[in-house]
Amino acid sequence: EQVSSREALLLGLILVIIGLGWALAIDFLYGAIIFAGVFFDVIIYTMWLKRRTPWSVIFGGISGGMPILAGRALALGYIDWVGIALSLAVLFWIPTHILTFSMRFFSDYENADIPTFPAVYGFQSTRVAIAISSVLAALAMAAAAYGIGLTWGYLRLLALLSLGLLIVAIASTLRPSDKLNFGLFKYASLYMLGAMLII
Questions:
Q1: Which partner from 72, 173, 175, 182 sits 20 to 30 angstroms from 129, CA to CA?
Q2: What's the distance, Cα to Cα, between the start and end of the chain in Å?
Q3: ∠ CA 136-36-18 to the nearest 5 degrees?
Q4: Phi-psi region of 136 (alpha: psi -120 to 50; beta: other; left: phi over 0)
Q5: Distance (Å, rounded) from C-alpha 63 to C-alpha 90?
Q6: In the prediction, which pLDDT does 97 show?
Q7: Per-chain mean pLDDT for the chain
């Protein structure tokens, strides 16, 4: 049976209200950060910018970084630079993840009338943006790892993961192919999973 847009909206609102209420009941700062994530995702990214500009992915990235910032703030009772670095790592990782996806499914985004980086700036500029965002994500993750005091063994493992991300991103820029592009998409997901598990 098909779910109507009204039913989807109602379910979404119920889940958001329950989730935000629960988050605020746990801790006000935690709830406020969760609220910011929902606001950036639903209002700024999805409703306002997604069909207007390819730069919407940045605001989607801000909302994507809120859960880890919220968790860190809940653990400490305040926002610190490590939490911000972790949030920035997610923010910079999201273009690597999403822009590779938008190149693979270019025609689908075009048919849906959603502006993407490849459509507006071209594939090569998008690949350069992906490489830059990959470098920034790796640097932010390294800063957070240092900030929480990871031992040398874990730092080396994180450096190896980051090096893999950078190599695939640069290779995709210098020798572009659909296979390498999708490989970067998959590796970026494994990179973030591995980096978070290490941290």
A1: 72
A2: 43
A3: 130
A4: alpha
A5: 9
A6: 86
A7: 94
| Cβ atoms of 176 and 185 closer than 8 Å | no
Which is it for the CA torsion 24, 81, 40, 199, positive or negative?
A: negative
By CB atoms closer than 10 A (0-12, 13-18, 19+), residue 2 is exposed
Q: Which two tokens stand for residue 137?
A: 């994500």
Q: Which residue has the tokens 């970067």?
A: 184
Give the DSSP letter string of 95-132: HHHHHHHHHHTHHHHHHTT---HHHHH-HHHHHHHHHH
- Residue 115: other Cβ atoms inside 10 A: 18
Percent of the chain with pLDDT over 90: 85
The number of residues in the chain equals 199
Which residue pairs from 45-54 have beta carbons closer than 8 angstroms and sit at least 24 positions apart in sequence?
50/114, 51/113, 51/114, 51/115, 52/115, 53/115, 54/115, 54/116, 54/117, 54/119, 54/120, 54/121
pLDDT greater than 80 at residue 14: yes
* Cα dihedral value 167, 169, 171, 174, nearest 10: -140
